[in-house]
UniProtKB/TrEMBL annotation, chain A:
The keyword Iron applies. It comes from the Bacteria. One of its GO terms (molecular function) is 4 iron, 4 sulfur cluster binding. Residues 1-30, 31-61 form the 4Fe-4S ferredoxin-type domain. The keyword NADP does not apply. This is 4Fe-4S dicluster domain-containing protein. Keywords: 4Fe-4S, Iron, Iron-sulfur, Metal-binding.
UniProtKB/TrEMBL annotation, chain B:
Residues 19-223 form the FAD-dependent oxidoreductase 2 FAD-binding domain. It holds the Pfam family Succ_DH_flav_C. GO terms for molecular function: oxidoreductase activity. Keywords: Flavoprotein, Oxidoreductase. The lineage of its organism: Bacteria, Pseudomonadati, Pseudomonadota, Alphaproteobacteria, Hyphomicrobiales. This is FAD-dependent oxidoreductase. It comes from Shinella kummerowiae. The keyword Nucleotide-binding does not apply. It comes from the Bacteria. The active site is at 272 (proton acceptor).
Length: 109, 542
């Protein structure tokens, strides 16, 4: 579930709060997102790819927080990994035209 | 500069007037809204989450059932029909293939970035969830549809003869709002029974509860024995990579079938053995049958599937990892609101249904429509329901919002005799009656009867709880909805004393030709299950 919001990277744009399908975020008086309803997170990783500055990190466990720190996320280069693998960048969609899934579907049968 | 949320106090009791109200935010909601708007009527789409990210499609990468017109289409229907456990309808399959293909071509025309084949032609048989849903949201906006995000509907509104709107709440403020509409499309998705699957949080089967409260019935609720492999503890119920997996016991021993061969293909023949093995202990997998080219395609084509591994810091092609079977209820299972007309009407005037909220038996029978069929069904049924609702709204000239009565029951209008119902604990209890492998992968009369008693008791307690208030109304209604869906599932599963499709009875392992008909369920206080053929005969006699 969502675990890390980087206050350094975040530009207080309100996108994560708006697009989260599970309504997990609130914002504090400075506009910084706050993980207000963490247990509602559906671990869909979509807030990460909509974030224009790769400021969010969703850990892999869907049932509870893993306790990962921002320092570890930085050290392991995990900010923005899903966006990059899709071809999304700075919160903008991209890369669908390069999806090689058709090869998988042919081989699957 | 930081953009601050506008401090707008949400007025309680706001009334919105429209022609067609679409409830939901996934692909079927989008197609229903586009279809209705195309006819020139006013359309409002209300989503519990955010239209563009909510639902099971947005975080996924889905194939479509994409069959070009021509000779091959009838053959494709015929081939597919053979796998539907005898309960699909060829006419519906054909028209779904036709409508879905036509709408996929609309996506091409609108500029959706489909990948190209080697010969330069576009490959339209696959849609990447985040891109697809973001793209259709923009189309829906462009079509002039009013989108209300984070506005969950709590109940339908109706007069004596018609459904005339819905009432809900604003998540940010907890304030109430009402929509007066000429017709309503329920595109609320399936029911994930509180299982933490990708996109599943909002999938609490709300549409089925609303429809049942309005007098509609459901069908195919026993075809809910659907699970998909996932890395243990993750949300990634995406089976495709497991096509290339080998499975292992905890001690590293390879899992073998009755012939002594290694169990492979976790999305096909191997699934049942993996499920059996999971009853006795942990199971591990390694995607070791994927050649380097396939590894590359999987990584680039299914990047969501690799998020858990990358974050755990393991290489799934080389290292073993623990797996589980995630329950998928009516999301990849097949049951839902019963459709009674070609425009996806529910039999209740003014109420239409699309996507996973509807029973998909017409196109997939008693098996899972997960992936391709459900994606095409969402496109086609959304289109038909949108048209059906728009035409109904046009025919209804005089409407009086003041005459609309709220139709909601449990969670909204309890008697208040009890105040000891803990919503979270009760949600867990309902989940535990349906989700475990020995409850829904394999069913027995004894386990089903026990679940029936527990769930009936929970339903009756919910009815005696005082009405929830503010934002808590959403939780209360979601719990009521999942409980109702669980009770319908159990009732249908008890009546089907055979194994067919994704309904597996340990006590009736074979298919019984005499039971090759659909089962409908209805009712809230008292749940009734009936075989469709008998129901028809009774209607004729009556």
């Amino acid at each position: 579930m969502i675990e890390v919001i980087s206050t350094d990277r975040c530009i207080r744009c309100d996108i994560c709060e708006r697009i989260c399908p599970a309504f997990v975020f609130d914002r504090d008086e400075t506009g910084l997102p706050v993980i207000a309803r963490q247990d509602d997170c559906q671990t869909c990783f979509l807030c990460e790819i909509y974030c224009p500055t790769d400021a969010l990190y969703v850990a892999e466990d869907a049932h509870g927080p893993t306790g990962i720190s921002e320092a570890e996320v930085v050290e392991r280069g995990l900010f923005g990994t899903y966006a990059r693998s899709l071809g999304w960048s700075r919160g903008r969609a991209g890369g669908a035209q390069n999806d090689p899934t058709r090869h998988i579907r042919v081989a699957q049968v | 500069m930081a953009s601050r949320r506008k401090a707008q106090p949400e007025k309680d009791g706001r009334l919105i007037e429209t022609d067609v109200l679409v409830v939901g935010g996934g692909p079927s909601a989008a197609w229903a809204a586009l279809s209705a708007a195309e006819t020139g009527v006013r359309v409002v789409l209300v989503d519990k989450g955010y239209h563009g990210t909510s639902g099971a499609t947005a975080p996924s990468n889905t194939g479509t059932w994409c069959v070009p017109p021509g000779e091959g289409r009838a053959a494709s229907v015929e081939q597919r029909f053979k796998r539907t456990a005898g309960l699909a309808d060829r006419r519906w399959m054909l028209r779904a293939a036709d409508q879905a293909y036509e709408n996929l071509l609309k996506l091409v025309e609108w500029g959706y970035p489909f990948p190209s084949e080697e010969d330069g032609s576009l490959y339209i048989a696959n849609l990447r969830g985040p891109d697809y849903m973001r793209f259709v949201r923009q189309r829906v906006q462009k079509a002039g549809v009013t989108i209300l995000d984070h506005h969950p509907i709590l109940e339908l509104l109706g007069d004596d003869n018609h459904i005339g709107g819905a009432a809900g709440l604003v998540r940010r403020s907890g304030a109430s709002f009402r929509v007066s509409a000429g017709a309503v499309v329920l595109a609320t998705g399936g029911c994930a029974f509180f299982e933490r699957i990708l996109g599943g949080t909002g999938l609490t089967g709300d549409g089925s509860l609303f429809a049942a409260e309005a007098g509609a019935s459901l069908s195919g609720m026993e075809f809910t024995g659907k699970y998909t492999l996932s890395p243990h503890g993750s949300s990634l119920n995406k089976g495709l990579p497991f096509r290339w997996a080998t499975f292992y016991r905890e001690n590293g021993e390879v899992l073998r079938n009755a012939h002594g061969d290694p169990v492979t293909n976790g999305i096909g023949g191997g699934e049942r053995q993996v499920a059996e093995a999971l009853l006795t202990g942990p199971v591990y997998a390694r995607l070791d049958l994927a050649e380097p080219a396939m590894q590359d395609w999987l990584r680039r084509g299914q990047p969501n599937c690799f998020q858990p591994y990358d974050r755990m810091g393991i290489n799934p092609f080389e290292q073993r990892f623990r797996v589980e079977l995630k329950y998928e209820g009516t999301v990849r299972g097949t049951g839902g609101i019963r459709i009674v007309s070609s425009d996806c009407g529910t039999g209740v005037a003014g109420l239409y249904v699309a996507g996973d909220a509807a029973s998909r038996e017409n196109v997939t029978g008693g098996i899972s429509g997960g992936g391709a069929i459900n994606a095409s069904w969402a496109i086609a049924s959304g289109w038909w329901a949108g048209h059906g609702a728009a035409h109904h709204a046009r025919r209804r000239q005089s409407r009086d919002a003041a005459r609309l009565q709220p139709l909601g029951t449990a969670g909204l209008r309890g008697s208040g005799k009890r105040d000891d119902v803990d919503l979270a604990a009760t949600a867990q209890a309902v989940h535990d009656e349906i989700v475990p492998l020995d409850k829904s992968y394999w069913r027995t009369a004894a386990a089903l009867e026990s679940s029936r008693r527990t769930l009936d008791d929970i339903w009756s307690r919910l009815g005696q709880t005082g009405p929830a208030t503010g934002i808590e109304r959403l939780r209360a209604r979601e719990l009521a909805s999942v409980t109702a869906n669980a009770r319908w599932t159990v009732a249908a599963a008890l009546l089907r004393t055979e194994s067919r499709g994704v309904h597996r009875r340990r006590d009736f392992p074979g298919e019984d030709d005499a039971q090759a008909s659909r089962i409908t369920v209805s009712g809230l206080g008292k749940v009734t299950a009936a075989r469709e053929i008998l129901a028809l005969e009774t209607a004729r006699e009556g």
